[in-house]
């Protein structure tokens, strides 16, 4: 599959908020003329404090909610202008991995069922054996081995890190070009987090997947991202290569975010042995 570029160009999203006590409604501009882009093989981070609009931007990039203005496009084709076939391709090419590993998998479904669902949905394989073969292949890619010992397990029979690997497995089934990971590692313990980040990076190298990592965890950003967007009140206030953002932040907000972060070098040494 040829390379694809996913971009949001000047997207804005406003939510109405009703205050029943005051008897009036106000508007919250969650995302305000924000532009970001990612290509396969990139590791892009979007950082900002809670409520800055990161998840709303992610939901627009995933086509889950429409932008009020501006466009989200894949390879120059706006989502809103896509025909059925293009939409199907987009749904396969752009995947997401969400936060809270325990809540994102259906507790009543085994790993086999949960993978078979997406394999069938995307028409990757048909027939029990072919579907199982694909499930095994995918579990191998996310490092859950021996693969067959995981097929019949329920989420509660997996550790937090293993559940996160199953979620990543579901995301890579349709051979995506881009994965949007919204706080995908935030809830995990330090050593588990490091393993998942390593897996994500392996998949980038082996499969050419590009990531948009949405997080408030700056040590993680410094460790894995190549390019950073800093978002404040829905606006991208600063962007640039990771090394530049960390060494020479220009915007006051970025300086404050970095100052509020724990000593990054110490955290990195502790977490990743650097
Ligand atoms: N469906 C919605 N209806 C009303 N307001 C919303 C909705 N979704 C988000 N908002 C508001 O939009 C703003 C941005 O929220 P968003 O969840 O995108 O921020 P965030 O940076 O992802 O925050 P967090 O890191 O806490 O998840 C917030 O003020 C939020 O309350």
UniProtKB/TrEMBL annotation:
Pfam families: ABC_tran, oligo_HPY
Listed GO MF terms: ATP binding; ATP hydrolysis activity
InterPro entries referenced in this protein's UniProt entry, alphabetically: AAA+_ATPase, ABC_transp_ATP-bind, ABC_transporter-like_ATP-bd, ABC_transporter-like_CS, Oligopep_ABC_C, P-loop_NTPase
Flavoprotein keyword on record: no
Keywords recorded for this protein, A-Z: ATP-binding, Nucleotide-binding, Transport
SMART domains, per database record: AAA
Listed PROSITE patterns: ABC_TRANSPORTER_1 (PS00211), ABC_TRANSPORTER_2 (PS50893)
Protein known as: ABC transporter domain-containing protein
